[in-house]
Amino acid sequence: MDGTNDILRNRFLQGMSHAACTVNIVTTDGPAGRAGVTVSAMASVSADSEKPTLLICVHHLSPAAAMIVENGVLCVNVLRDDQSHISDTFAGRFKDEVNDKFECADWIPSASGAPQLSDPLVAFDCTLLSSEQVGTHHIFLCEVQDLAFARHGSPLIYARRAYGTAMQIDGVRNLKHALTGNGVALKLGCFHAAAPYILPQLIAQMPGIGLHLVEGDQRRLCQALSTGECDLALMYDIDLPDALETDQVTRLTPYVLLPDGHPLASQTEILPQELAGEPMVLLEGQPSRDYFTGLLTAEAVTPNIAYRSTSFEMVRGLVAHGLGYALLVTQPACGMSYDGLRLVSRPLVSSAGDTHLVLARRKGAALPPVAQRFAALSKAHFNEAMAYDEIG
What we know:
Elements: H1 3-16, E1 21-22, E2 24-28, E3 35-39, E4 42-46, E5 53-59, H2 63-71, E6 73-78, H3 84-90, E7 107-109, E8 115-117, E9 122-134, E10 137-149, E11 156-159, E12 162-165, H4 172-175, E13 185-191, H5 195-203, E14 210-216, H6 218-227, E15 232-236, E16 244-252, E17 255-259, E18 279-283, H7 288-297, E19 304-309, H8 312-320, E20 326-328, E21 343-347, E22 355-362, H9 369-385
Parallel strand pairs: 13-14, 13-15, 18-19
Antiparallel strand pairs: 1-11, 2-3, 2-6, 4-5, 5-10, 6-9, 7-8, 9-10, 11-12, 15-22, 16-22, 17-20, 17-21
Protein name: LysR substrate-binding domain-containing protein
Pfam families: Flavin_Reduct, LysR_substrate
Keywords: Oxidoreductase
């Protein structure tokens, strides 16, 4: 391959990394034996042929490719977003730990005999119509004989060389339900851990507006701002893209959350070194995960992570039951967990420094009047009510 083709190939791979795909386990069984492989290249061909048809591509070095051809049957199992371990197993990422890839999940035989996951998002039981190799991949044209559906769940998505999940984005038609009679709606994003403790009191000061709210982590909020789903977002000022501009709202000081009665709870402040060896309950997700662990590693303390959760209240509950400490910045008014156990918070003394809650928007974007009003209200609220009282 010459240099020009190498460049085109690399650009093609980079471009395709942005094309989101479902993650599928393609299986077969028959005279050639049983096999399965993780596949992202799967697409509908036609619903209006004699029977519906779909297309999948399998690398020629996969043992499953030749076995599909010989068996003449296959089942395309579309994974749910909580089944990434099945994808990793059939992609060969655990080949040193797993002797039989099929042991990672429960299977039932489909009508064709190809293994079907007992709980896929959807499974297409197929017979093979044709096969052609193009470059490194076999292109299989398949005729769908039967389908199985899950009652719930979202698809596992692969894009930008990482797993993700589908998230509904309300379009203009659905957004109309959030509009008031005069067509005024606040399109607002807020970091999910802080939203329940910050937004209600602010929105209550803007009666009569419609609200389109997106709660999520930094990645989700950046996405919502870039697509125009949100005009404004309350989020942390950590690792924000250059396409956003921000106004600082308040400083956020990290603190240590402890169960009532913990030996460190008797102190007025806590040093990172005093947490060495203590089990940590980590608020998972970005930027929380890296920020909180970074507060410790900056002081040469290795976090002893015992539990992880993306839920703020789950983290608080695990701490309340004595399962570890947590580092947090958002501090609710209530010092109790959901099940009524007392929690204690103490400032963390760290050279890594504070972070800030900011109002972020697309660079150069003009804010609609309702968003300008919310921004002014937010700044005034934090200046008056929390000038000396950290929210986190």
